[in-house]
């Protein structure tokens, strides 16, 4: 059993070392999960630097008691006026299951609310047949039923996001190839202002 980590949540662009460490975490974690989104450090570095561009939000979970170790990081980019897209969220594989992802999400949501962002949308691909959605051909006739009956077959992250308060709002069938859907999830951060 892991002890509760003391974390600091900071912009990962604060040092060149943090940027390089964030790129390593991105490549190592996604490659380790069998996903090819950032197959090498150069593509991961580009992603990190893109996530640091204004007005985006990009924060890391740093060890508060033992130096500058970066456990994971998360980015948020504009999509709509008051709903932004989470992209990406990554925690070192050896540190997953310690509450770091949940705490990163909470820190990100707090910063987003301060900026007037009212909702967060995210896509979580099923590239490894980890959900029941990859077990059938999704069509306009069955997609809503399949979403309602979704099952997690291999620890797909959609369940993590549900525990963080996100709901499935749609699916893009075959987004990553045949029977590799992208699951879209959304969370309201604050109540919309009431009109008089």
Main beta-sheet annotation = 7 strands, mixed
Number of helices: 5
pLDDT averaged over residues: 90
Tally of DSSP β-strands: 7
Helix vs. strand class: alpha+beta
Q: Helicity range of the residues?
A: 25-40%
What is the string of SSEs from the N terminus onward? EHHEEEHEHHEE
Largest sheet: spatial strand order: 1-2-3-4-5-7-6
- The low-confidence parts are 192-196
Strand content: 25-35%
* General shape: globular
How does this structure look, described?
With 196 residues, this protein is an alpha+beta fold. The chain has five helices and seven strands. It has a seven-stranded mixed beta sheet, with helices on both faces. A hairpin with a 4-residue loop joins strand 3 and strand 4. Helix 1 packs across helix 2. It is globular, with a radius of gyration of 17 Å. The C terminus is likely disordered.
């Amino acid at each position: 059993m892991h002890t509760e980590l003391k974390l600091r949540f900071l912009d990962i662009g604060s040092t060149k070392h943090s940027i390089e460490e964030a790129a390593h975490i991105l490549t190592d974690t996604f490659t380790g999960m069998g996903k090819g989104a950032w197959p090498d450090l150069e593509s991961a570095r580009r992603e990190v630097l893109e996530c640091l561009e204004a007005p985006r939000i990009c924060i890391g979970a740093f060890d508060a008691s033992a130096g500058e170790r970066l456990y994971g990081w998360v980015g948020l980019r504009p999509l709509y006026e008051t709903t932004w897209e989470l992209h990406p969220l990554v925690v070192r594989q050896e540190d997953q299951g310690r509450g770091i992802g949940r705490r990163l999400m909470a820190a990100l949501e707090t910063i987003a609310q301060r900026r007037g962002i009212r909702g967060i949308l995210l896509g979580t691909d099923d590239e490894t047949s980890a959900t029941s959605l990859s077990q059938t051909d999704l069509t306009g006739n069955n997609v809503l039923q399949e979403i309602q009956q979704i099952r997690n077959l291999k620890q797909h992250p959609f369940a993590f996001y549900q525990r963080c308060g996100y709901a499935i709002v749609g699916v893009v069938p075959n987004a990553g190839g045949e029977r590799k859907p992208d699951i879209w999830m959304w969370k309201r951060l604050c109540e919309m202002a009431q009109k008089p």
